[in-house]
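Entry for the shared binder. Reason: the reviewer on the internal report wants the predicted structure included alongside the sequence.
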Amino acid sequence: MINPTPFGFRSCRQLGFEVCSFTGIESEYRFGKLMCISDQPNQLQKFAKAASDHNLEGVYSLNTVYELTPKSVDKGIGLQKLFEAMKLKPDLFIAAGDGENDLALFRIADITFAPSTSPDIIRRNADQITDWENSGILEPILKKLQLHIYDQSGNMA
Protein backbone atom coordinates (compact mmCIF):
# COMPACT_ATOMS: atom_id res chain seq x y z
CA MET A 1 0.00 0.00 0.00
CA ILE A 2 1.08 3.54 -0.69
CA ASN A 3 -0.07 6.13 1.86
CA PRO A 4 -2.42 3.69 3.61
CA THR A 5 -5.45 5.06 5.41
CA PRO A 6 -7.87 3.39 7.83
CA PHE A 7 -10.43 3.35 4.97
CA GLY A 8 -7.91 1.60 2.72
CA PHE A 9 -7.12 -1.05 5.32
CA ARG A 10 -10.85 -1.66 6.03
CA SER A 11 -11.63 -1.88 2.30
CA CYS A 12 -8.79 -4.32 1.68
CA ARG A 13 -9.96 -6.55 4.52
CA GLN A 14 -13.60 -6.41 3.32
CA LEU A 15 -12.58 -7.28 -0.24
CA GLY A 16 -10.32 -10.10 0.96
CA PHE A 17 -7.08 -8.55 -0.34
CA GLU A 18 -3.71 -9.24 1.14
CA VAL A 19 -2.21 -5.94 2.27
CA CYS A 20 1.38 -5.45 1.14
CA SER A 21 3.67 -2.48 1.54
CA PHE A 22 4.99 -0.71 -1.51
CA THR A 23 8.65 -0.16 -0.76
CA GLY A 24 10.12 1.63 -3.75
CA ILE A 25 9.85 2.85 -7.27
CA GLU A 26 11.14 0.67 -10.07
CA SER A 27 11.56 1.74 -13.68
CA GLU A 28 9.13 -0.88 -14.96
CA TYR A 29 6.28 -2.56 -13.11
CA ARG A 30 5.03 -6.01 -13.96
CA PHE A 31 1.53 -6.51 -12.64
CA GLY A 32 -1.83 -7.90 -13.64
CA LYS A 33 -4.01 -5.46 -11.75
CA LEU A 34 -3.46 -2.45 -9.54
CA MET A 35 -6.39 -1.43 -7.36
CA CYS A 36 -6.62 2.11 -6.06
CA ILE A 37 -8.98 2.52 -3.12
CA SER A 38 -10.05 5.87 -1.71
CA ASP A 39 -12.94 7.33 0.23
CA GLN A 40 -12.26 10.64 -1.55
CA PRO A 41 -13.78 10.30 -5.06
CA ASN A 42 -12.26 13.58 -6.28
CA GLN A 43 -8.75 12.32 -5.44
CA LEU A 44 -9.49 9.02 -7.17
CA GLN A 45 -10.69 10.91 -10.26
CA LYS A 46 -7.47 12.96 -10.29
CA PHE A 47 -5.46 9.75 -10.06
CA ALA A 48 -7.48 8.18 -12.89
CA LYS A 49 -6.84 11.23 -15.09
CA ALA A 50 -3.10 11.14 -14.38
CA ALA A 51 -2.97 7.39 -15.04
CA SER A 52 -4.67 7.83 -18.43
CA ASP A 53 -1.40 9.30 -19.76
CA HIS A 54 0.23 5.86 -19.48
CA ASN A 55 -0.16 2.66 -21.47
CA LEU A 56 -2.79 1.30 -19.07
CA GLU A 57 -6.49 0.56 -19.02
CA GLY A 58 -8.42 2.06 -16.13
CA VAL A 59 -11.94 1.30 -14.93
CA TYR A 60 -14.02 1.81 -11.80
CA SER A 61 -15.21 -1.42 -10.21
CA LEU A 62 -16.86 0.56 -7.39
CA ASN A 63 -17.10 4.29 -6.85
CA THR A 64 -14.30 3.93 -4.29
CA VAL A 65 -12.15 1.49 -6.30
CA TYR A 66 -10.28 2.32 -9.52
CA GLU A 67 -8.51 -0.58 -11.26
CA LEU A 68 -5.50 -0.28 -13.56
CA THR A 69 -4.33 -3.10 -15.82
CA PRO A 70 -1.92 -3.37 -18.72
CA LYS A 71 -3.80 -2.78 -21.99
CA SER A 72 -3.90 -6.49 -22.80
CA VAL A 73 -5.39 -7.56 -19.46
CA ASP A 74 -9.12 -7.65 -18.69
CA LYS A 75 -11.80 -10.15 -17.72
CA GLY A 76 -12.86 -10.76 -21.32
CA ILE A 77 -9.34 -11.51 -22.56
CA GLY A 78 -8.63 -13.64 -19.49
CA LEU A 79 -11.73 -15.74 -20.01
CA GLN A 80 -11.04 -16.17 -23.74
CA LYS A 81 -7.50 -17.37 -22.94
CA LEU A 82 -8.90 -19.78 -20.34
CA PHE A 83 -11.41 -21.18 -22.87
CA GLU A 84 -8.57 -21.63 -25.39
CA ALA A 85 -6.26 -23.30 -22.86
CA MET A 86 -9.02 -25.69 -21.81
CA LYS A 87 -10.15 -26.22 -25.42
CA LEU A 88 -13.67 -25.10 -24.51
CA LYS A 89 -16.18 -23.53 -26.84
CA PRO A 90 -19.33 -22.80 -24.83
CA ASP A 91 -22.66 -22.95 -26.65
CA LEU A 92 -23.94 -20.12 -24.47
CA PHE A 93 -21.91 -17.75 -22.36
CA ILE A 94 -23.79 -15.78 -19.69
CA ALA A 95 -22.08 -12.98 -17.75
CA ALA A 96 -23.16 -10.87 -14.81
CA GLY A 97 -21.48 -7.73 -13.63
CA ASP A 98 -21.94 -4.56 -11.67
CA GLY A 99 -18.83 -2.48 -12.42
CA GLU A 100 -16.94 -0.99 -15.35
CA ASN A 101 -14.40 -3.79 -14.98
CA ASP A 102 -17.13 -6.17 -16.22
CA LEU A 103 -17.69 -4.42 -19.58
CA ALA A 104 -14.95 -6.45 -21.32
CA LEU A 105 -16.69 -9.60 -20.12
CA PHE A 106 -20.01 -8.27 -21.43
CA ARG A 107 -18.47 -7.85 -24.91
CA ILE A 108 -17.78 -11.59 -25.26
CA ALA A 109 -20.95 -12.88 -23.57
CA ASP A 110 -24.10 -14.02 -25.34
CA ILE A 111 -26.39 -12.75 -22.56
CA THR A 112 -25.48 -10.22 -19.88
CA PHE A 113 -27.05 -9.32 -16.54
CA ALA A 114 -26.56 -6.36 -14.24
CA PRO A 115 -28.19 -5.42 -10.95
CA SER A 116 -30.60 -2.51 -10.90
CA THR A 117 -28.23 -0.76 -8.50
CA SER A 118 -25.25 -0.81 -10.89
CA PRO A 119 -23.94 2.35 -12.58
CA ASP A 120 -25.79 3.62 -15.64
CA ILE A 121 -23.05 2.55 -18.09
CA ILE A 122 -23.36 -1.04 -16.85
CA ARG A 123 -27.15 -1.09 -17.04
CA ARG A 124 -27.01 0.35 -20.61
CA ASN A 125 -24.66 -2.46 -21.69
CA ALA A 126 -26.59 -5.30 -20.04
CA ASP A 127 -29.24 -7.36 -21.80
CA GLN A 128 -31.17 -7.87 -18.59
CA ILE A 129 -31.47 -5.81 -15.41
CA THR A 130 -32.26 -7.75 -12.26
CA ASP A 131 -32.77 -7.11 -8.57
CA TRP A 132 -30.41 -9.40 -6.70
CA GLU A 133 -29.90 -7.43 -3.53
CA ASN A 134 -32.08 -9.74 -1.44
CA SER A 135 -31.53 -13.07 -3.19
CA GLY A 136 -27.98 -13.02 -4.49
CA ILE A 137 -26.99 -13.09 -8.13
CA LEU A 138 -27.84 -16.61 -9.31
CA GLU A 139 -31.53 -16.94 -8.47
CA PRO A 140 -32.83 -13.95 -10.50
CA ILE A 141 -30.67 -14.91 -13.48
CA LEU A 142 -31.99 -18.48 -13.49
CA LYS A 143 -35.55 -17.17 -13.19
CA LYS A 144 -35.05 -14.81 -16.15
CA LEU A 145 -33.62 -17.70 -18.17
CA GLN A 146 -36.54 -19.85 -17.00
CA LEU A 147 -34.20 -22.41 -15.46
CA HIS A 148 -35.00 -24.04 -12.15
CA ILE A 149 -33.13 -24.18 -8.87
CA TYR A 150 -33.11 -27.49 -7.03
CA ASP A 151 -32.33 -28.15 -3.39
CA GLN A 152 -30.02 -30.96 -2.20
CA SER A 153 -32.92 -33.44 -2.24
CA GLY A 154 -33.64 -32.77 -5.89
CA ASN A 155 -36.82 -30.78 -5.21
CA MET A 156 -37.42 -27.60 -7.14
CA ALA A 157 -36.79 -24.65 -4.82
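Summary line for the report: The chain has two domains: 6-70, 75-144.
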